[in-house]
Amino acid sequence: MIEYFLNNKEWIFSGVGLLAITSFISVVFRRKNNEIENLKSRLNLQQNNNSNVQINGQSQSQSVIVNVDSKIGEVTSSEAYSLDKNMVVSPLKKINKLTPAQITEKLNGVPVLMRNEMITKIKGLKVEWNTTLSSASYLDDNLIQLFLKINEDGSQSDIAICKVSKNDYAELAMASKGTPIRIIGEIDSIDLCFNLKNVQLLF
Fold first, then answer.
1. What is the CA radius of gyration of the chain?
2. Which residue among 123, 134, 152, 192 is least packed, with the fewest CB closer than 10 Å?
3. Residue of 119, 110, 159 whose CA lies nearest to 135
4. Do 100 and 193 belong to one domain?
5. How many CB atoms lie within 10 A of CB 199?
6. pTM tops 0.85
7. Residue 5 vs residues 15, 24, 25, 26, 128: alpha-carbon distances, Å
8. Does 197 lie in the same domain as 100?
9. DSSP assigned state of 173
């Protein structure tokens, strides 16, 4: 390589040689620049695509609050709904502040033939009441039925009935009559007692 350079130094350092070398270097740098620009373009394109996905995601999913008033005399219930394009709409029930005495008063204040219609409107209301354990029995190896005295408005005349899993409430194994229990649940039916479903017990 060195011998070739020495033998051709006059040609290399002549105008033609310098032009050839300069052209070669320009071609190399131009290719490098083109590769860098192409890489930058691909990166920018990926970033733009990611931004579009985020924007679309925000526009497709949104939470909306819808107030649904079910008038039962002065009784109203509100439900919050979470709306999503890819999700099933489901109600998120708020706890109603009605006491058993207030519900009973409303039922007694309507004509007898309208009682069932009123109960239908009350059905599904989510309530939270202070109670004490009255009695309990096994329905099967896991399911327990509870009878609870409701301690609201200073009265213990109303009874709440519910079913729970013993696996969810180990405290029931040692609970005695009169044990305070705060119950949260939905009114399933009203006969002589308040039957609740989807309950949560707080000891």
1. 39
2. 192
3. 159
4. yes
5. 19
6. no
7. 16, 17, 18, 21, 97
8. yes
9. G
| E strand or H helix at 91 | strand 91-93
Q: How many angstroms separate the CA atoms of 170 and 146, rounded?
A: 14
In a domain, 65, yes or no: no
Locate 15 and state its tokens. Answer: 């105008």
Q: How far apart are CA 9 and CA 86, in angstroms?
A: 75
Is 87 domain-assigned?
Answer: no
CATH number, residue 121 = 2.40.50.140
Comparing CA positions, the residue from 183, 191, 69 lying closest to residue 119 is 191
Cα separation, 9 vs 33, whole angstroms: 31
Q: Residue 123's domain spans which residues?
A: 95-202
Task: Please check whether residues 198 and 99 belong to one and the same domain.
Answer: yes
CA distance 125 to 98: 9
CB contact at 8 A, 63 and 83: yes
67 within some domain:
no
How many domains, in total, are found in the chain? 2
- Is the residue at 72 inside a domain? no
The amino acid sitting at 182 is R
Per residue of the chain (203 residues), give pLDDT as tens.
566 656 665 655 556 566 666 676 766 667 766 666 766 676 665 555 544 434 344 444 443 333 334 444 344 433 333 334 443 444 567 899 999 999 999 999 999 999 999 999 999 999 999 999 999 999 999 999 999 999 987 666 799 999 999 999 999 999 999 999 999 999 999 988 999 999 999 99
Name residue, tokens 């017990």.
201
